[in-house]
């Protein structure tokens, strides 16, 4: 802005612009009538809502100075205007001169000029208690969406203070989110059990000694693999024998909050009255991360505290022990591996000489508490448990005497590590390798159990479950239709799991997908039962000549792609998993990740022969050869929990479109994969970085790398209702698909939503992703995915909101990905590689309908027209058939181009 031209401005100036008294002696023409210049920058601040601002720095690049030799010349930083004030093409000296009343700080130093692509050389560093930090904290507390900063010379009449500043200023903010409130489900006492209250489902426990208090803290700024230490403050409250309320607080030492347990053994400090017999004791906890305290565990709507009753007449807690899962630490086993826990009376307790039963409950087990009876009042008992997930597990054990009086619950916590990796995996997507014994396929696991290939197996001619870029093996149903290892892979007497992608082409005979040889019977079979006309998972009662079989057979039908209902759909891919859970003595059969059948297995034995793919052993040789296609066979020598089985469903995506947006010709930008160019329309342009010059201003959101480093790239720039579109749909979106792009929103809007991309049908959008407008009730926008249930303008739509804090207006923008798994009908939205609305991800299901229109960038279909245009930049658009997993989405989110992904 210019004092001498108060109604003019240099809006969104390119490169650098002057600040201070315009040097008319150097530039008499350019400075004619200008007088004094000031600079203003509007910065987005909605990302910081609800955060604690620790430090803030405003940094800018000084490109030119008045003096030949740098000298100390003061520059002042201001906050211009109030809440959410922003600059625009109409902002000038005349309408902002009176708004420069909030001086933040002044920097008085000699600055050597740099280019606008270099690191900032003038920094207004506020520190932990400086004015800039306080301004940002006020914005975070007040839910500001933006803040405008101004730079001016301290002496606006002094030519020596003139400088040229670059437009790409930086606001650097160090912030912290307070630790989360400790969940009462992750608070317990030992003895005693999970947090009990006077009003909750778990009522206050009676304990015979002052217990140990235990909690699991969480800090939202810390991931599982990277965490700064936190500490926990425990507060203990009681009423003494004289009716006076007492309390004390105790802090733990600092430790990592990655699922660890923090504890405190209650001990009344000296000088405090003792806790009386039969009186209630209340306790709570809060977490500190070296910057901010989180809320107390009782804060919120319920406002209740955990409690227990000190009662030395209650029978003592039982003893609990486990070799595989030792108390308070990680043991030998992990997820899906079965361990043994032994309960025994506390023989030093006079009340524990007549135990009639034990009641026990594992927190990671969804089942109700179970009971077990000892052979005698003093005899120990043992139970088995197979943990379904990593992290801390709490086991509560209560003993009961002959009169059914409960003891104080024993609390035994232990840490479950990751389960063992796959014992054998044969993807069957590549051509087999030659060997002395014939053809063989590689085992992708660490165990290198190659599988010999029979003559009735062919490769790379059939599309796999992931589409054309994914391959499978075809078995022709003859005696040569098999693959075989030379040794066993799993112990069938212990916990194990097997899975495979299967596409049957003949249903007139049995077809075994996976089995393992015994002496005369298979240790198990997973495959198709022609008599039951459905999928089955079976285990013979014994080896050699079995008298029967324990078998889980699916009894429900499936809806096929041709809209018919059949027990098994021919020529369609299905994912099968069979598991044996030794802790519960159960066989389970999963189809497409859903548990279909559970049956008891009442006898166990070990099949010590080879693992077979496509057939099973019998007394007279091999039989039940499979006819159809098989891919991704996996075997685990442990139970695979339900959540892990669901993760196996992610099929390999096949890329159908990729627009790097680096070139444009005749108004179109090419598709490097499918040949569907993006046609630019309206106010859409393509910014192209040129190699021979330093580019100042916008930069490509995604950078490509060559042999000499970064190479020039480009962005799709959308303004004035600009858009880009393909002429036809890259994918029909009635099956699995993945769509992704990186986007920077020019500015949040209070009048319209802004669409990143949409795939259109005849009347509405198959799906769209948009950044919502902000309102008085919603002072900052967010990304959301909208999916109508049918191709009808009145159809009910599923909306998935992004519940993560992020700012799409920052220089790098944000990466958005939509993933749809057609097998489970589940839909996911990822923002910067993180799953949005993660707590409800399993609920987001949609049905089939095909998109008939093209892919739209920057607009959405609205009736017979278009609406919700985006203003900003878009880069690196890609679309696939198949559902990408979280790892692949993470790769897509990189700002370094992944042209081969």
In short:
It is built from three helices and 69 strands. It is an all-beta fold. The chain folds into four domains: 161 residues, Jelly Rolls (Sandwich), CATH 2.60.120; 234 residues, Sandwich (Immunoglobulin-like); 224 residues, Jelly Rolls; 239 residues, Jelly Rolls (Sandwich).
Main attributes of the structure:
mainly beta, Jelly Rolls, Immunoglobulin-like, 69 strands, ConA-like_dom_sf, disulfide bond, PTX3, LamG-like, signal
CATH-defined architecture of the largest domain: Sandwich
C-alpha geometry? flat
Distance between the termini: 46 Å
CATH class of the largest domain: Mainly Beta
CATH fold type of the largest domain: Jelly Rolls
In DSSP terms, counting alpha (H) and pi (I) runs of 4 or more, how many helices?
3
| Biggest sheet, spatial arrangement of strands | 30-31-32-35-46-37-38-39-40
Helix content: under 10%
Strand content: 35-45%
Largest sheet: 9 strands, antiparallel
